[in-house]
Each structure stands twice: as structure tokens, then as C-alpha cells.
Known about the structure:
The structure holds 3 protein chains of 3 kinds. Helices cover about 70% and strands about 0% of the residues of chain A. Chain A is mostly helical. Chain A has a domain at about 45-255. Chain A has a two-stranded antiparallel sheet. The radius of gyration of chain A is 20 Å and the shape is globular. Chain B is of the alpha/beta class. Chain B has 13 helices and 14 strands. By secondary structure, chain C is mainly alpha-helical. Chain C has one domain: ABC transporter involved in vitamin B12 uptake, BtuC (Orthogonal Bundle), CATH 1.10.3470. Helices cover about 75% and strands about 5% of the residues of chain C. Chain C has helices spanning about 1-35, 40-60, 60-85, 95-115, 140-165, 165-175, 180-185, 190-210, 220-235, 240-265, 270-280, 285-295, and strands at about 130-135, 140. In chain C, helix 1 crosses helix 9, helix 2 (about 40-60) runs parallel beside helix 4 and helix 2 packs across helix 8. Chain C is globular. The chains are: A mainly alpha, B alpha/beta, C mainly alpha. Chains in contact: A-B, A-C, B-C.
Amino acid sequence: MNEAVIPSAALPKGPFGLRRNLLPAVLFLAFALAPLAVAFGADPFFQSILIRIMIFAIAAISLDLILGFGGMVSLGHAAFIGIGAYAVGILASHGIEEAHVQLPITLAVASLFALVTGAISLRTKGVYFIMITLAFAQMIMFFATSLSAYGGDDGLTIWTRSQVFGSDILGNRTIFYYVTFAVMLGCYLLCRAMVVSRFGRVLRGSKENPVRMEAIGFSPYRFQLAAYVIAGMMCSLAGFLLANQAEFVSPAYMSWQRSGELLIMVILGGLGSLHGAVIGAAALLLLEEGLAGFTEHWKIILGPLLVLVALFLRQGILGLLTGKKNND
Amino acid sequence: MRGLKKVLLSAVAFAALGGVAQAAPAEKVKIGLVTTLTGPSAVLGQQIRDGFLLSVQQNGGKIGGIEAEVIVVDDEQKPDVAVNRVRGLIERDKVDFVVGPVFSNIAVAMFKPVVQSETFFISPNSGTSNFAGRDCSPYYFVTSYQNDQMHGVLGKHAQNEGLKRVVLMVPNYQAGKDSVAGFKRHYEGEIVDEIYTSLGQLDFSAELARIAALQPDALFTFMPGGMGVNLTKQFRQAGLADKVKFLSAFTVDETTLPAQRDDAVGFFGGANWAPDFDNEQSKAFVAAYEAAFDNVPGTYAMQAFDAAQLLDSAVRGVGGDLSDKDAVRAALMKADFPSLRGEFTFNHNGYPIQDFYLVKAAKREDGKYQTEIVEKIFDDYADDYAGQCRLGS
Amino acid sequence: MSTTLLVVQTLNGLQFGILLFLIAAGLTLVFGVMDFVNLAHGVQYMIGAYLAATFTALTGNFLWGLLLALPTALVVGIILEVLVFRHLYERDHLSQVLATFGVILFLNEAVKLIWGAAPLGVPVPEMLSGNVVLMDGVLYPVYRLVIIGAGLAVALLLYFGVNHTRVGMLVRAGASNPRMVSALGVNIGRLFMIVFGFGAMLAGFAGIMVAPILSVEPGMGDNLLILAMVVIVIGGIGSIRGAFIAALLIGLVDTLGRSFFGDLLRLFMPAATASQTGRAIAPMLIYILMAAVLFFRPAGLFPARR
């Protein structure tokens, strides 16, 4: 009975359970070793695709934190990608290129935006939450479009990548790869630690039974808001990296279609496991890349694939990998 | 687990395949064609792809007498996707030339990676002001126009005709604001109102009511794609067509006319070419294009066709040796090909110097619609930003 | 001049609102009764428009086009229901989002394969193509008045159907307490199919009616879907009355905001700043409105449940 109050059954007993950790370990190891394949003659461009996958994986992990564990379906998560990207773009256009200046500003702006919009959005539930997060994302997108000093709708080229104490090491692709990898791994581990902590258990409890959480003295609102702000800051890191990778920022990064894609990544990979989000990001982007090389009408293949996943794989791709068909 | 490995493995295989396929430059010319093939604007991207491939096909699949491999890539009209795909073309496929894209914001995003890798970048459509001026590059060539020029044609026409009161209406984004600037550069009359609509707006009834109330001599507008279709239909339905002269850029052309039909007939646009252009190569091109694709080519297809011809002439000019970049650049600069629009030369910034015309939408005898040339507005018009470009000539 | 402009713009806002209502009505029913998030509702609107274009071209008459396209839109909706959607009613919202998103991708691309990427046009029917004089010097297109009229008729029909028929009663009951309805032995599967098919047909009807004034192109439903979602959220999910009022509200705010917001600001600030701020804020207005409504009424204006 007590377990229902603060559920811990959803995760296995110890944080070091082998079966549970094998898949994420293999997954991250694969990402860590992938540049070796390049060293052994694979195409260097493969590394670029992986960087892009990892950047979206970071955003998807942060979304999974609030979606899979907090039950907050946000259709405005891409706003934070945009905030991170525009922080780099706008600062760089004013000659502020140092990462140690850009990063704190990125995180501060993202946390402020998350705090204000989260405080208002969390008053609503369910579909109303979906739509109000969408509304805020649309507002900031239109705002970016109106910034004609920073390219407006055309976007803004970043002529110099973020500098690390005066050196341009992020320009080196392998270093940038491992920086992105480190951020992804860091976000993943942080989220893992959070969801098994008391904070995480209250968060999951609030998703499953908010009334009961309130009854035993926790305010779901404050916990949800905290999670929302943390997820927003994490996602802005993805924006920071995306701006540096593409060397370009544009309001298109914040469109609701982008937010939708992030949702699709998380659901496709498998909700509420964090590494499922990484798998989902990889699967969607690789499918897109592979199918687009195959035919210009690739969406006619991708669409039914998604329908099939929704119909037959209750836990997304993760369910397929672990053999678990149903985890509802 | 197995599933994941498969995905990763196939990705490796997919990447490796691209790597193997490279050949010595003199045996094969590789061209990456980046264009928009999905989404509402796919029709523009298709014209560019079809126009380019038509020229290659007419040359027996060759560019400059060398076997050509054209890799067509969809940018999905998303800047970051375009950046990623074009990097793939440069790094994985090792293309000799990048041709594309349709839209300026995509071009702005692609510019840095392409130019920095010292790959020649040929734009068959978008021509932004910054790459014509301040940020011009020796690797960037434009076979279309500088965006402002198309708008300037209408401004100049309004000025020539002595139209006294004009309303401007454009979508509220960068290209829209540039359009207003381009029009104003050549028009000195009174601008009664500047209306900014939201991008992708479907219904213009609110704006048209305002225009009807203002009773101007003419409306100048820039509404590409579906927006233009909606606007012309609604403009006609609101009964304004007989009272207000309709001047537009990128609003009434061969890609939108099949939907606008009679509603747009008699409306004016500005262009550097039209399907009824009177020279041998142009007539042959229009006939071949219509036979192959069953639609009327617009400037998009024409400029892509010319881009392929440009590459053909340059590769021929250097005898197929693409390793000497300066020689290739010099050969491109000559623009030694029979352009569909007749006279065509490059300015020192890689943008064209060409004539511009006032065009008018018309219904042909076979029931199809096209734009037709009314009069020449500018003779050998070089863009207004070339002066800011420091490239030596 | 300013009052006549205001009258015309109000009519325009009304017409836009009616259009939104036609799409939102089906969406809010499906949502309210079946608790089903149907992102593919927008593509059903697009399909209606394409069918109208095809049948009008075939028969040479818009009325025939309408009469043929309407049942076809219904059939397409029911096919989708049988093939995909009915297997998802028991599932969580997120599976529904994934599946219906897949349907959007598929149908948008399928439309492009069948009809080509270039936009299509449907001429306004001859007898409805003129303008009427509303007052001195104010013309208004007849066809737009027809849209307003048709939309109001549908709204009345819906009101009658939902409030005074057996199916309507079940729909209302389903919206407020779906479990109870199925416990009472109602064939819930059939009810769902009827509601779904009807919703698809309404969206198709909206698509057919706008075909003569808007360009028919792939993806035309995507942005309208978002606006329809805004409408049903403001109105309160499952509430037809709420959807009607919210749709008119959104239509009016968007249309009037676009044309007068800049002028309004001019009262408070210099003209140049006013028009610039107005331009930046006008497209955001409906989202600001939605955020404000949800701030004060987190379940919309007319919550159907509880």
C-alpha cells in the first residue's frame, strides 16, 4: 500500500541492477566508441550525424524527465532549444564568444522563462497543459521572428563558435563530439539520480495520484515546477550545442512541429526510462536520414511506421529491445 | 538489443557506402543539389530540380563532357536540416559543386559550411543582399538575381506610370521587409500604408477591406506560394481587381498560376525571364520542359537550367580539371553559355548583370497559364550591393 | 470610413471564426466523448478541400462537387477509424499522439503523390461570385456570407442534434461520464464510430467550403489544427457551445487584432513604435488570449466534465 503512495516499484531495487543497466551502458558505450570507427576508416560525416543525434537526445532526455516521470506533456519544449541557440547567436553577434559567459546566461534565461511559464502552465492539467505550453512557445517564436536586428525570420549565422578560454577547440569535430557526449551523459546521470531520489518519487507520485501526495504533505505543484525548470535548463544546453553545430540559429528551431518531434522521439523510444529518449532520438533521425536518401517521399514510409509502433509496441522501441510488451 | 545494433550497423553501412563511391575528379563531376521537396513549397523545389536535371539529361548525363553524378537532397525547408545535409554532401560525398536552395533563410544557413570548405556554391534562386555586398564570397555564384531587384522592377514601373498612391503589403518577416525596401528604392510617390501580414496567413479579408477603404492606385505585394494563391483569389473576389492595379513579386508565377487561373489574369509581376521569351534556346527549353513534366516552367526552372549550363561551360573551360580552384572560378566568371534569357554576365560579386521585365499573367491558347513579357524595365541592371563587395575584379 | 471598416472586419472575423468552429466541433466531440487526441483532424479538413477540387473539376459544378465530396470525406474518416483509430481508444494520449502524427505524415505525402505538390484552385461558383452592398460604399463578397450562413446552419443543426436526439443525448452523456454510458449497455463502439465519422465530415465540410477562397495545398490542415486545438481548449473540451463561442472569439480577436492593434497602440506611443510593436504582437494575440483564459479558468470557459 505504501508503495502506491511513493512508488518505487517502477524502478528495480538497486540503482546498479545489471539487467536494467545493461542496455543504457551498451548504448552510451556505443556512442563513446563511435569516433573510433571513424579512426578506422568509416566516413567522418557519420560523426556529424551522431553529434546531431546526441544533441536531440539531450533535449529528449530533458523532456522525458517531465513527461515520463512528471506526466507533464509539453508541446512547447523546443522553445528551450531556441533560447539556448539564440543566447549563443545574439551574444556572438555582439562579440561575446566565450563559452563561460554564454553558458551561464543561457541557463539563466532558460530557467527564468521556465519558471514564469511553468508557474502559469502548471495551474492546468492534461490537454490544457499541452496547449498552454504550446502557447508560450509560439509567443517566443513570434518574438524571435520580430527580432530583425538578429535576422528575423531568416535567422542568424554564427561566424565564430563558442570559445573555451580563448581557444577554438569546439571547432575540432572530435572534441565537439565528446563535449556533446559528456553533456548527454551528464544530463542522463543527473536525471537518473533525480528520479530515484525523494524528489523523483514525489514527482512520480504527483503524476499518479496528486491528491494523495497533497494529503501526505507534499505540494505537487512545487515539485513539478522544479522539474520543469530543470528540464528547461537542460534543453537549453541542447540549443547551445545545436547553435554551435549548425553555426546558425533560426526561429524554426522553436516551431511547434519541432516540439512535436521531440515528443515523438520520447514516445517512439519508450517513455519514462531516459535512455529510451536517446534511442528514440537516434531512431527518428536515422530513419529520416536513411529514408530521405532512399526516396523524396520518405514520409509516406515513416508515417505508417510510427502508426505501427503506436499500435503494437506499447513501450516503444525500448519495449521491443527488452522484450517487455506491456508496462502500463 | 539486436534491433538497436541493426540500426547502428545499417547507419555505418549507409555512411560507408557514400565514402566508397568517390572517384578521381577528372572522371566524374559530382554535384549536390539541395532543394525543398517536402512541405507546402515543394513545387518550387521540384521546378529547380527538374530544370537542372533537364539540362544534364540533354547533355547526355554529362557536365562539360564528363560524366555527371547529381545527388538530389531535400532540405525540408528547415535550416538546420539543410546545414546537416549539405555537410554530408561536402564531407561524405565530396561534391565538386553545391547547387541550391530555394529559400533565402536556407541559403543563409548553408553559406558558411559550403564556402568555408571551398566548394563552389551556385544559387539557382535565392540572392540575399548580404552575400551580394558585405559578406560576398569568391565561392558563391548566383544565376537568379539579387532579391531586391525583382521588387525594384515594380517600384520602377509604378514610378514610370506615375501611380500616385500605393499600398504595400508583405508578410512580416525579413524577406518581406527587404521587399518593401526594394520597392521604395525606385518609387517616389506616396505610400499610403504598409501592411504586414503574418507569415503563412490564409485569409486576407481584413487587409483587403482596409485596402478597399484606402482606395489606392495600386497594390504592391510579395506573397510567395500558397499565400499568393489565396491573395489573388480573394483580391479578385473582393472586387478590387478593376479598381486597384495589382503589382507583385513572386506572387503570380508559373508555380501558382495553375491554382490562380483566371483570377490572376492581367495581374503584373517582375521577372528576368518569362516562358514567352523570344529566343531560340528559350523556346526549345520551354517545349522540352513541358513535354517532360507537363507543366509550364517558371523562372525557378529557367535559373536552374542556366545553373547547369553554367557548370557545363566552366567544367569544359578548365578541361575537366577541377583541382585548380582559381581556374574554375575564372571559368565560372566568364558565364560562357547560351543563357535562356539571352545576355547574362556576372558582376564581380558573383551576382548577375541582366535585364528585367514587367510581366503579366495570361491564359494561353492551349488553356494553360503563364506570365508574358510586357516591357523591359531595367537594362543590364547590376544589384545595388555590389559596391560593398571587396572582391577584386 | 473607420466604422465601415470595422463592420467589414467584424464580418471577416465572424467568417474566420465559423470556419474554425466547423473544424473544432468535430475535434471537441471526439476529444470529449472518446477522450481521443486526434492530431489527424487537420488532414481531414485538407482531404475535404482536395475532394472538392477534384469533384468540382470532374463535374464542372461546385454544388455537385460539394455533394460528392461530403460523403467521400465521411467514408475516408470511417476508413481511418476502422483501420487505425479504433484500436487506440483504450490507450493513453501519447500513443494516440504518435499514431495520429504518423497518419498526418502519411496523408500529407499521399496527397502530394496523388495531386502533385502545386497548389490547386477551385473557382467560386458563378451564382455566388458577386458582391453585395452592405451599406454606402461597403462591398462584401457573397460567397463569404454563404460560408457564414452555412456555418451558422451547421451550428444550429449540431445544437439541435446534441440536445434533442438520442444520439445527442448519448454524446452528452459520453462527454461527461463515458464509463457510465458503456455500463448502461450502450454500444459504445458504434457510438464512437458515428461521432468520429461525423467529426471527420464536419472537418471535410470546412475544407470543401474554403476551397474556393483558399489555395488547396499539401499540409494546409496543419496550422488550422493548432488553431482548432486553441479553440477547443478555450471553450472547454467536449463542449460544443464552448467551441462555438471560443471559435468566434478567436476569429474576431485574430482578424480585428491584425488590422487595428497597431492603431490602438498609437494612442499610447509614437506611431513608428506602435506599428512595429503591433506587428510583433498581433500574431501572438490568440496565444496570449489562450494563456490568459487558462490562467483564470484552467479547464476552459465551459468545462463539460464535472
